[in-house]
Amino acid sequence: MLNHALAIIHDEHRSLGAVLHGLRFLVREMQGKNAAPDFKLLWSMIYYMDAFSERLHNPREDTYLFARLKARTHEADEIIHTLERQHAEGASHLKQLEQALGQFEAGMPGGLEAFAKAAEEHIEEAWQHMSLEEKVAIPLAKKHLTPEDWISIAEAFGENGDPRFGAKPDHEFRDLFSRIVNLAPPPIGVGPAHCA
Ligand SMILES: [Fe+2]
Ligand SMILES: [Fe+2]
How many other C-beta atoms can be found within 10 angstroms of the C-beta atom of residue 117? Predict the structure, then answer.
């Protein structure tokens, strides 16, 4: 169960990482190569980050992984405090990113620059956050959690896990992820190539 739970968490990080990587690529193409913005794709990516990461993945971490770890040891208190704070800050930074995209799409002066800046900051924060989880929190969880803890974490993160965290079953997010990959131009996806 430990391996199953960790495989799901790693997999979710990989999917989110792919979307972050894709967003960074699009931002750099728009800024560096004057590529035309693909707002449908940009909104899909931001929706994915909000619906999947902010509303599903992070609350499951808070409620199961971090809560269990807090109950088992004080060794992880500091790192959990940091990660919980980053979850809260990430949510408000994502709102700012949404606003910046709306302003960019509406043609506000400096819209691209403001969106690019907000996107780079959000991407960097999200990478650092996931890396902290993978390198510090998960090793502590492996050290301290019991087999029963891992069973409940695997259940919570599994298909149709805790219904409190959204009515959408996980396969809907897989479909959304596939749509993003289909919309995105090479090299990040299989969609049509961008015209500069
Ligand atoms: Fe997290
Ligand atoms: Fe995470």
Answer: 14
